[in-house]
């Protein structure tokens, strides 16, 4: 298989296992994003693919070749770092060409490839400058150029946009996506930023505490989170969670929190199997809909963000966030009626947090 | 504010005068004739400045030869150069490589070795003098220039290793990872990435080692033997073992000549020196 395959990869530090039996297939040409909070093991996983950290057990294949015992430069990979990691004493030209020089490529050929990459990234005028004379965004381009020039089978990105300001980050995100579409190479990309994950990835792997929580398309990770952790980590503002039970009253299905009954609309038929079982309801802000037939909710606070506003509501003994357009005015203390979109909500097991049903 | 400023300049001037006064007296005296020294105050300027004393200190007085030499410092100056140059490059070069491997490459016992080096730095040379003598004697190079060079390298390497190790510890991990991915191994990482980064530290290490080795008296006296007496030992002989009247002008000139190389190194490298001392973490 082309691409990358991790087979039962295990990592232990000083006898303490931090990752166990990680299995992951990254198809050729995939843009795979490793997403998770800090300390979840995403960078460790990337470093193991790069060969910067040895695996304790298991094997890693790159382009169908077992690279587990190989040095980083023998693995046909290139890496871009959060801190750019440019060689401060070398010019941009030498920075980009360094890997090729180490590989023993003849000088004219290095020159040609460096120029090509510089052209592609539009950094030709910067070639003779030192990294300290470049802005953050320019340094990042050079770092990407250093990876591109090697024409590797797999690109590894370790939080490459975290050091850039918001505007530049958005621009670079678009450029990275273009670059991937243009080159069609396999990319493994580490980030804690869910926007980056959602916009860039063809496949997202959500990690927590050294294990894979879900590996799926960005749409499914958002729409059909495998468990409560994934549901809470992906999406901003975060998903609303309430504990309670499903109850049926004639045709209408409610979620009974013990302090009130949240009406659910368009609930899928499978939900009837779950009636009476204690569980957690997960509803994203956009799953709360204002409806006169709904349950009464008190406005606690409204947060306008520009295109949207988020309304904190006290409802059925819990606080939940609802999304609304910017036009409507919400006065704190006023009452409003809401229902929950049963066709999009998620239900989780109360004990282990696993998803029971997606609307 | 203004008042404080005056006080500051006043204090600085006072300190400068106190430090420069002996230097002034030395230069002034070295330019006087013996008659003038006998009859005048040490603070007066020479009435008829002459470099005769400097010439005598450098070439010696060949009318009253001591053995085959004329007793000047010129020959021991060359000996000092022969000692300093190899000892300087060996101690700094070795220190750079060992400091690099201690800082960058994880190996068993690296911390123990570093602790041992630190202890080595704080032991006064007098304590290990005798064991060193035995060691050098067993190697068959006691009393020769190579023997003395080896002793200087042994002494210097602990210090230079520590300097380079501490500097290389500040190099960001990502940079080292990038170099590994680019395929730079132990030596190529050192040569292409780390050594160019360490130029300010390299400068400081060179200057400090040069000063230390050039100014050394004890090791030169002990290990140099007859053929390997550095300039400092020769100066001591010149000043301390004359018959008859003390030739202050020659003594002063000889002392100035001995101090001149280190002085020149400091003056020429002043800015580099300050930069090296101020060099903290590397900006990525």
From TrEMBL, chain A:
It comes from Thalassospira tepidiphila MCCC 1A03514. It comes from the Bacteria. Keywords: ATP-binding, Nucleotide-binding, Transport. Belongs to the ABC transporter superfamily. The keyword Membrane does not apply. The keyword Signal does not apply. Residues 4-234 form the ABC transporter domain. Gene3D superfamilies: 2.40.50.100, Nucleic acid-binding proteins (2.40.50.140), P-loop containing nucleotide triphosphate hydrolases (3.40.50.300). One of its GO terms (molecular function) is ABC-type transporter activity. GO terms for biological process: carbohydrate transport. GO terms for cellular component: ATP-binding cassette (ABC) transporter complex, substrate-binding subunit-containing. This is ABC transporter domain-containing protein.
UniProtKB/TrEMBL annotation, chain B:
Its main location: membrane. It comes from Thalassospira tepidiphila MCCC 1A03514. It is found in: Cell membrane. One of its GO terms (biological process) is transmembrane transport. The keyword Metal-binding does not apply. The keyword Membrane applies. This is Sugar ABC transporter permease. It is a multi-pass membrane protein. The chain crosses the membrane at residues 7-27, 83-105, 112-133, 145-168, 189-214, 252-274. GO terms for cellular component: plasma membrane. Keywords: Membrane, Transmembrane, Transmembrane helix, Transport. Residues 77-269 form the ABC transmembrane type-1 domain. Belongs to the binding-protein-dependent transport system permease family.
């Amino acid at each position: 298989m082309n691409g990358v395959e991790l087979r039962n990869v295990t990592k232990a530090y000083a006898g303490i296992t931090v990752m166990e039996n990680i299995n992951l297939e990254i198809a050729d040409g995939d843009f795979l994003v490793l997403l998770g909070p800090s300390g979840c093991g995403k960078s460790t996983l990337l470093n193991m693919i790069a060969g910067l950290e040895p695996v304790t057990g298991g094997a890693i294949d790159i382009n169908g070749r077992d690279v587990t015992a190989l040095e980083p430069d023998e693995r046909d990979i290139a890496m871009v770092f959060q801190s750019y990691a440019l060689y401060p004493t070398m010019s941009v030209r030498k920075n980009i060409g360094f890997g090729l020089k180490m590989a023993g490529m003849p000088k004219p050929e290095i020159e040609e490839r460096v120029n090509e990459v510089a052209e592609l990234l539009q950094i030709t005028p910067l070639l003779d400058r030192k990294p300290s004379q470049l802005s953050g965004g320019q340094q990042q381009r050079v770092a990407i150029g250093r990876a591109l020039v090697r024409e590797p089978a797999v690109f590894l990105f370790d939080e490459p946009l975290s050091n850039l300001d918001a505007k530049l980050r958005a621009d670079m995100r678009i450029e990275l996506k273009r670059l991937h579409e243009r080159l069609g190479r396999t990319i493994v990309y580490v980030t804690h930023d869910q926007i980056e994950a959602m916009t860039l990835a063809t496949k997202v792997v959500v990690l927590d505490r050294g294990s894979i929580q879900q590996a799926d398309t960005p749409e499914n990770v958002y729409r059909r989170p495998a468990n409560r952790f994934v549901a809470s980590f992906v999406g901003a503002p975060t998903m609303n969670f309430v504990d309670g039970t499903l109850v049926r009253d004639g045709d209408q299905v409610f979620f009974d929190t013990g302090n009130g009954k949240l009406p659910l609309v368009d609930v899928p038929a499978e939900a009837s199997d779950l009636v009476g079982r204690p569980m957690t309801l997960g509803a994203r802000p956009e799953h709360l809909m204002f409806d006169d037939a709904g349950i009464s909710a008190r406005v606690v606070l409204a947060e306008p963000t520009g295109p949207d506003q988020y309304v904190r509501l006290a409802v059925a003994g819990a606080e939940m966030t609802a999304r609304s357009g910017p036009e409507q005015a919400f006065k704190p203390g006023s009452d409003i009626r809401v229902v929950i979109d049963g066709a999009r909500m998620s239900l989780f097991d109360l004990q282990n947090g696993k998803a029971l049903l997606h609307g | 504010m203004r008042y404080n400023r005056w006080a500051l300049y006043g204090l600085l001037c006072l300190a400068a005068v106190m430090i420069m006064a002996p230097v002034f007296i030395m230069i002034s005296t070295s330019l006087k004739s013996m008659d003038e020294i006998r009859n005048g105050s040490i603070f007066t300027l020479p009435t008829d400045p002459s470099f005769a004393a400097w010439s005598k200190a450098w070439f010696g007085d060949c009318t009253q030869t001591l053995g085959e030499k004329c007793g000047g410092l010129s020959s021991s100056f060359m000996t000092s150069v022969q000692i300093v140059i190899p000892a300087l490059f060996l101690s700094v070069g070795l220190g750079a490589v060992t400091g690099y491997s201690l800082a960058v490459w994880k190996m068993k016992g690296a911390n123990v070795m570093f602790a041992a080096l630190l202890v080595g730095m704080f032991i006064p040379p007098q304590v290990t003098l005798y064991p060193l003598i035995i060691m050098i004697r067993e190697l068959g190079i006691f009393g020769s220039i190579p023997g003395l060079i080896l002793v200087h390298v042994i002494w210097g390497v602990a210090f230079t290793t520590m300097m380079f190790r501490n500097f290389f510890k500040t190099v960001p991990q990502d940079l080292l990872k990038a170099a590994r991915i680019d395929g730079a191994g132990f030596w190529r990482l050192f040569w292409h990435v780390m050594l160019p980064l360490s130029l300010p530290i390299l400068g400081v290490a060179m200057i400090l080692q040069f000063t230390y080795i050039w100014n050394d008296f004890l090791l030169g006296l002990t290990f140099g033997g007859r053929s390997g007496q550095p300039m400092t030992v020769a100066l001591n002989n010149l000043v301390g073992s004359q018959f008859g009247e003390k030739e202050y002008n020659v003594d002063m000139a000889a002392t100035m000549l001995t101090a001149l190389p280190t002085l020149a190194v400091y003056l020429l490298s002043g800015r580099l020196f300050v930069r090296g001392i101020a060099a903290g973490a590397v900006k990525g």
